[in-house]
Amino acid sequence: MTRADPLKLGTRASPLAQAQAFEVRDLLIKHHPQLAEPGAIEIIEIKTTGDQVQDRALSEIGGKGLFSKEIDAAQLERRIDIAVHSMKDLETRLADGIELTAALAREDVRDVLITDKAQSLEHLPAGSVVGTSSLRRQAQILHRRPDLRVRLFRGNVQTRLRKLAEGEADATLLALAGLNRLGKTDVITQILEPEVLLPAVAQGAIGITCRRNDRRIIDCVRALNHRPTLVRVSAERALLKALDGSCRTPVGGLAEFLADGSLRLRALVARADGSEVHETERLGPAADGERMGRDAGEELRRRAGPDIFC
Fold this sequence. Notes:
By secondary structure, the protein is α/β, with parallel strands linked by helices. It has ten helices and 13 strands.
């Protein structure tokens, strides 16, 4: 790739988003050595509504799109060329004119418990307050431990850890992938396996979007794509799309390759208070991943009934 102007990479401004942007920058340079020249890549921070409004749940202020609409606008207006996203925050319906071009190799998908009150989730004292902004985490935790209490915890990783240290909650839950990328794994009390807490759709994956039909940029970015990750998250995103899931609905989904190359998809939908959890699973060829996701989503939607999605 040759460019007269810098390749402009757009990202949210949080430390984790910056770490992900640097990861993408380094991979671009690896695949296109000419981009190592000073000024060849410019990282542009974009403040999103989701980052600026911290005192309310996402479900109350518009959902996941609040983490991407300003970035989408910058991309469509050509103020940036590519955008780096945490794929779990990327809506299943992308803005017109934008495509998901690449997914990087996926990090650890699991969630973790952080607390100084107990050695594990099972041993948290009854009545303990768990801080989280995720209805998925809330629903599964309350389903397993209805004697716990949950309160809203918004903000980036550093903000949530500060709130925990200041006593606003007894425990919190974060994605292991983010802590790995930030070098903050020392705060972890317990890693929660998917059998305990099914991850969010596309958790641990970084996605790169481009303007549709911008062939020069697309060809540059496509070299970074990790196909096994894209297969997995595509199956999970098909599940979410079939459920018409958003941050208003507790949804979990995880697709994994088995030793024989087949794909296993686990899926879950729940009530936010944990009183009702529906689960299903699919197993099939990787090429059928998106179909498996749609089928699992449609099943869960039938079983859960319409009121669970209100």
